[in-house]
Amino acid sequence: MLEIKSKKSGAELTSVKLDGKEMLHQGEFWNRHAPILFPIVGRLKNDETIIDGEIYHMGQHGFARDMEFKELEKSENKHEYVLESNSETLEKFPFEFNLYVTHLVEDNTLITEYKVVNKDKKEMIFGLGGHPAFICDYSSGKYKIEFEKQEDNIKFMSLKDGLVLEEEAPNILSNNCINLNKDSFINDAIIMKNIKSNKVYLKENERTVLEFDFTGFPYLGLWAKIGAPFVCIEPWMNTADKVNTDGKLESKENILKLEPNEEFKCSYKMLFFRTGSKNSKNNK
Questions:
Q1: What's phi and psi for 65, nearest 5 deg?
Q2: Is 190 within 8 Å of 223 (Cβ atoms)?
């Protein structure tokens, strides 16, 4: 059974323990654990974007991860929070909204759910994503990310100063896996699209540590600070600005749109495995 902790700041998970063993990065090497990315994913060119002809300023991954949410429910197996638009958010993002974040425990599975409600009188455009960091000594060369399905058409995206380049990055798949090593994140995050799989598996040698289900998310990112013993598996609805962006938020690839009073929901699932057995069916 999993035990979780979270906080109102960013509605962020701060601990995930399986049988008393911590699975989530504890902030020693990076000052976050599992932030939400809203209302943008990645970086904006010059940290600014144009909405309805006006320029707005936002830092990387938006503002929700640094804001105080309201706690709606906190039980052993469910933590639910909401962020309501206010004067501070409207200075950066000119839409009225409610952003709900829910963490649910079901046996050894942790589900993080997002719900965005457009409370405005006009169409709302936004980005959304997750950024959980799992304890993993990836520099050891013992870890890999394995894909659920054969990835014949996957695309790797190149970054420069946090912005997406037109040219693709090299395909680093080997036997349908990404083998992690000390050089994996020298060029920033690994970002992928055109993914067939709904799941990836974090493996230490051949032992499954984590099954990560990102069904419905068109992009997947991997990232870690150089040399730090964690790896982030990041389900994204959209990405950073392209280098040649026109600066308009509505022009971002795969931007999400909501009509007044509409809501958008998505979720990702993390199934954790006990140490011992190499057979993932027996070590849940």
A1: -65, -20
A2: yes
Residue 65 is classified by DSSP as G
Alpha carbon of 6 to those of 10, 73, 102, 112, 201: distances in Å? Answer: 9, 11, 10, 12, 24
Name the nearest CA neighbour of 49 among 62, 58, 41: 58
Alpha-carbon distance of 201 to 226, in angstroms, equals 21
DSSP conformational letter for 276: S
Block residue for tokens 């998310």: 217
Alpha helices in 32-110 (DSSP H): 87-92
- d(C-alpha 260, C-alpha 58), whole Å: 23
* CA pair distance 72, 82, nearest whole angstrom: 7
The verdict on pTM exceeding 0.90 is: yes
92 phi and psi, to 5 degrees? -105, -25
pLDDT at 284: 57
Which residues, in sequence order, are bridge partners of residue 156? 192
Indicate the residue type of 131.
H
Fold of 2-272: Beta-galactosidase; Chain A, domain 5 (2.70.98)
Per the CB < 8 A criterion, the answer to whether 212 and 195 are in contact is: no
CA 150/CA 161 separation, integer angstroms:
31
Model confidence over 94-151: pLDDT tens digits? Answer: 999 999 999 999 999 999 999 999 999 999 999 999 999 999 999 999 999 999 999 9
Tell me the C-alpha distance between 191 and 217, whole Å: 12
User: Of 235, 227, 35, nearest to 136 (Cα)?
Assistant: 227
pLDDT at 21 over 70: yes
Distance CA 60, CA 196 (A): 28
Q: Are 93 and 59 in contact (CB under 8 A)?
A: no
